[in-house]
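Example (one chain per record):
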Amino acid sequence: MTDLSQIVKAYDVRGVVPDQWDETLAELFGAAFVQVTGAEAIVTGHDMRPSSPGLARAFARGAAARGADVTEIGLCSTDQLYYASGALDLPGAMFTASHNPARYNGIKMCRAGAAPVGQDTGLSDIRRLVEEWREHGAPEPVAATGAVTQRDVLADYADHLRGLVDLTGLRPLKVVVDAGNGMGGHTVPTVFEGLPLQLDALYFELDGSFPNHEANPLDPKNIVDLQARVRETGADLGLAFDGDADRCFVVDENGDPVSPSAITALVAARELAKHPGGTVIHNCITSWSVPEVVKENGGEPVRTRVGHSFIKEEMAKTGAIFGGEHSAHYYFRDFWNADTGMLAALHVLAALGAQQGPLSRLVDRYDRYAASGEINSTVDDQSARLAAIKAAYEGREGITLDELDGLTVTATDWWFNVRPSNTEPLLRLNAEARDTATVERVRDEALGIIRG
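Predicted structure:
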């Protein structure tokens, strides 16, 4: 029997199917989700993985057995499920393993209005209930079981997104989109319909075996085809979506990757033009350029830990208008504080299409520093290596340290952050400096300590 600690993560459920979890377990999660949230009705959706429809149906059975009505929206992206949760004001469950390999699947759960369900906001209670029922048997269905109905919200989702961005001044653009055989192939055609875009579609066939490449655009090897197509065709830009299409990665007209921090800064400036003086959330490993741009545009930057549950919590607390992460997750107050790569993509298209210059020139103003990218190191003892780094830099003149998330070491012209992985024996290093030579020196010194 699977130890649930192996599949219940910080804010979702994720594991190998059927080795670690299956439809029987999904049904228990559906019942526990209703019990913990007290929901009288929920909404569910699923991605294109072969196991997703069955897992989603099993979850719905479990929820209905506890008396909740279930609205199934079927094939959808994760941000489409968040749209349904917000628009219908219902708790939701999305069946996806996002960018993970084909053998994985999972559930991302939210409360009504797309509010997150994490370890401290219900997920640990759901897990305990499932464990109890597996040991002692699930409770009998309630007398009045819920109804299960189907509803298509794709067009409404697309209309909602287009209504949040002024696209009236958009000039014709040639756009290459790599959907990675994931849910972008389902959502992009509807969202882009009617816009002056010449769409060059790469890998739009829904295929949860991912026959062309993994649906993880943050790994450079997975955007090689996109880069090549942009260069070959003279496209204005390229967009890559992950498996459940809630993240969007951008390449410019030269096929060069655009830093998610630069996209965060660009979108922040646009959102602040709509909401003057607003608060913008960024995590502790986004570029210095993000808080700089926010302040330059009259906004208030707030720094937080890495991870969508922390971003959403801080957005709710501060009333922030926007939030961005280095991982290409972008969060919008106008989208129930949830993350949507599609809305970020529309902002990029609107910004590019409102002027005549290329994307590379547009993002230059937001991409101001040299960065190392994220570098993972396998270590025997995460705490000991973090302590060694702290000891090496503590007390140095002009150096400040903080432990908001892992350890961040900051100097006048550089900074680096080291964070432990929650699921693997890894330390993750991100460094930034005012020039390439400095960031390489800082990176190498930090890695020397991390790797002993």
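Caption: The mean pLDDT is 95.
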